[in-house]
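Students often ask why inverse folding is considered easier than folding. One informal answer: many sequences map to the same fold, so there is more than one right answer. In these notes we will look at a single instance of the problem. The structure comes first.
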């Protein structure tokens, strides 16, 4: 399974899927309280701590049966052929030697594990894309009661690290989504996941440490870079194997999907906000697939280096520019951009008034819209600002 690391303030951040067979790990709970007895006589403070403890216990009790383990299995021949896969090397595990292994190459082996959670009584489950992104792999969902089901991948999003899978089951208990736009820094949250790929339904608690974070993902070999924008930072203890598990508020509502953790620091984990996940679910239910709208331009976000090298007059925006190959046109033929009259070297400054920056790049902002939406683009062309309208296409 591909293993990603994230560059974030000098830390290495890893996606949270986990190799099968790993052992060890300390699961700890942490309750932070301040002795306010001098001000309150101790009674009120003790009541506050007890109520928080009870809330966490209730969330864990009511939500755990909706959280599932996802086991990834491959034939030994497929597993050995993953020569560029740094996943096992990161954990110090070796790829099975088929010549020495007495099992047939047709035998399936458990090679990785992650987490998911149920969102419909009929067996729809959310997880991370990287948990179910292996070629020629089979996925098994293990419920909290030990029941096992073969899972089918319904959809994988191309932008966010989110996937939807399905099992043939009924009368399951789905989790409810909360409104991630209302969460606040300092708010208590609970994470549940398949810690280390071995300890299913591990519960930890913490707070929301930050909002609107941007993290850059690369695998351990320095390739396969991707970025995640506007993610939630939390100090709730999450570990390898927690990928795809829910981040819950104290009402038991999902406010995020756990996706990454800083391996070189304590208490730095990340979750994709629930509101963007609900948007993906709506697209899937409406269209039968996740359809992303397209503008049809090739671009680079302006930073200090690009501004200097191209003698630009602005510090932010998306510079429409062709690629290194002759076929890499700046404007895609017959696209929304071409129909709107956009040109190479135009700079898109804003979309419907939303300013474009390196932390809010054009492709991410466009994904907040749907196919057929009309967007007003503020552009800079030869030092003249213009407003053009584009109808986003499939």
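Output (designed amino acids):
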């Amino acid at each position: 399974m591909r293993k990603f690391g994230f560059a974030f303030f000098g830390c290495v951040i890893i996606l949270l899927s986990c190799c099968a067979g790993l052992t060890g790990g300390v699961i700890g709970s942490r309750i932070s309280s301040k002795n306010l007895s001098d001000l309150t006589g101790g009674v009120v403070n003790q009541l506050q701590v007890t109520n928080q403890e009870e809330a966490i216990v209730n969330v864990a009790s009511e939500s755990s049966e909706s959280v599932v383990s996802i086991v990834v299995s491959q034939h030994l021949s497929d597993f050995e052929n993953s020569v560029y896969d740094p996943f096992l090397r990161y954990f110090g595990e070796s790829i099975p030697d088929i010549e020495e292994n007495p099992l047939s190459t047709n035998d399936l082996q458990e090679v990785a594990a992650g987490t998911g959670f149920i969102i419909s009584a009929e067996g729809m489950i959310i997880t991370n894309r990287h948990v179910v992104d292996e070629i020629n792999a089979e996925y098994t969902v293990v419920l909290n009661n030990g029941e096992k089901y073969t899972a089918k991948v319904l959809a994988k999003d191309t932008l966010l690290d989110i996937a939807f899978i399905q099992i043939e089951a009924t009368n399951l208990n789905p989790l409810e989504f909360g409104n991630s736009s209302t969460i606040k820094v300092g708010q208590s949250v609970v994470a549940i996941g398949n810690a280390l790929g071995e300890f299913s339904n591990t519960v930890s608690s913490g707070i929301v440490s930050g909002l609107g974070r941007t993290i850059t993902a690369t695998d351990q070999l320095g390739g396969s870079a991707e970025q995640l924008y506007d993610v939630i930072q939390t100090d709730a203890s999450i570990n390898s194997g927690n990928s795809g598990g829910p981040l819950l508020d104290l009402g038991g509502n999902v406010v995020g999907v756990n996706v990454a953790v800083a391996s070189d620091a304590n208490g730095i984990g990340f979750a994709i906000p629930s509101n963007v996940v609900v948007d993906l679910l709506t697209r899937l239910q409406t269209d039968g697939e996740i359809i992303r709208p397209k503008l049809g331009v090739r671009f680079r976000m302006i930073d200090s280096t690009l501004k200097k090298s191209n003698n630009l007059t602005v510090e932010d925006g998306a510079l429409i520019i062709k690629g290194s190959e002759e076929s890499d046109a700046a404007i895609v033929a017959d696209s929304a951009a071409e129909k709107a009259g956009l040109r190479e070297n135009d700079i898109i400054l804003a979309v419907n008034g939303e300013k474009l920056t390196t932390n809010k790049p054009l492709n991410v902002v466009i994904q907040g819209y749907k196919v057929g939406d009309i967007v007003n683009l503020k552009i800079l062309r030869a030092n003249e600002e213009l407003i053009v309208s584009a109808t986003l296409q499939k």
